[in-house]
Design goal:
The chain is an alpha/beta fold. It has helices at 35-49, 69-86, 95-106, 151-157, 172-180, 198-210, 237-240; strands at residues 2-7, 12-19, 22-30, 59-63, 90-93, 113-121, 124-131, 144-147, 165-170, 186-188. It has 2 domains: 2-94 and 196-240, Nucleotidyltransferase, domain 5; 95-193. The strands form 2 sheets. It has a 5-stranded mixed sheet with strand order 3-2-1-4-5, sandwiched between helices. A 5-stranded mixed sheet has the order 8-7-6-9-10, with helices on both faces. A hairpin with a 4-residue loop joins strand 1 (2-7) and strand 2 (12-19). The protein is globular. It starts with a strand and ends with a helix.
């Protein structure tokens, strides 16, 4: 199974190809405000240098948030357009699960808990908890929003001394300093687990599609974390011509 992954949740604009659980190739640009101009050319370049056409893919996977309003809207618009025009299944991947995915691959299937976070606005975070033992099954995770004035809310999560939490995600260091620095039950997973990754989106998307967890292209909407009115985009049209 060959899957194209699209990641546009933050300043990272990335596309990746996975085949049968193995990363084939990826293109990543970490710049602000480039998604609208760069996403389609990046997909074209990635497919071309791997001698693939869109219709030869087995599916599309896209990060659906929570995250940046504009980035999510652009990424999902392109993904839905490609899936619809080429009759491909679409996997909608939680940004928080994709951020936790590289951590999950490094830990044993124990009772360890992954705390995945992303900053959606200044000093405002979305977070979700994932158990290692049923990580893949939790493909629609509950997530919560928290601001810098709600430290007590986070502290309640860590009250059980039997659980150890691994913190990862976009601006995880900032989250740690704001909410977790005094708690011994929380460990920072490391800087290598801080960035959104199209490869993780493609990998998780492949797992979803293998389990027939397929999104409804017509009704799928981004998970912004805030109320937002999305506008339609035709950015995908060039690739399908």
């Amino acid at each position: 199974m060959t899957v194209l992954g699209i990641e546009t949740t933050t300043d990272v604009c990335g596309v990746a190809l996975n085949r049968n659980g193995v990363q084939l190739d990826s293109i990543v640009k970490n710049e602000k405000h480039i998604h609208a101009a760069q996403l389609v050319p990046m997909i074209e370049n990635l497919l071309s240098r791997n001698q693939l056409k869109v219709f030869e893919l087995d599916g599309i996977a896209v990060s659906i948030g929570p995250g940046s309003f504009t980035g999510l809207r652009i990424g999902l618009s392109v993904a839905k357009g490609l899936a619809y025009s080429s009759h491909l299944p679409l996997a909608a991947v939680s940004t928080l699960q994709s951020l936790a995915y590289p951590v999950w691959k490094t830990i044993p299937a124990t009772e360890s808990i992954i705390l995945s976070v992303t900053e959606i606005q200044r000093d405002e975070f979305a977070y979700a908890l994932f158990r290692a033992i049923d990580f893949i099954e939790n493909h629609v995770p509950d997530f919560h929003l928290i601001t810098k004035n709600e430290k007590e809310t986070v502290e309640k999560i860590f009250e059980n001394p039997l659980h150890h939490f691994l913190l990862c995600g976009f601006q995880a260091e900032k989250f740690y300093s704001m909410f977790c620095s005094e708690n011994r039950n929380v460990s920072f997973a490391g800087k290598e687990f801080n960035a959104c990754s199209a490869t993780s989106i493609a990998s998780l998307g492949e797992r979803y599609l293998e389990r027939n967890v397929i999104a409804d292209v017509s009704s799928l909407e981004p998970v912004y974390g805030k109320n937002f009115i999305a506008k339609k985009s035709n950015l995908f049209s060039r690739i399908t011509q």
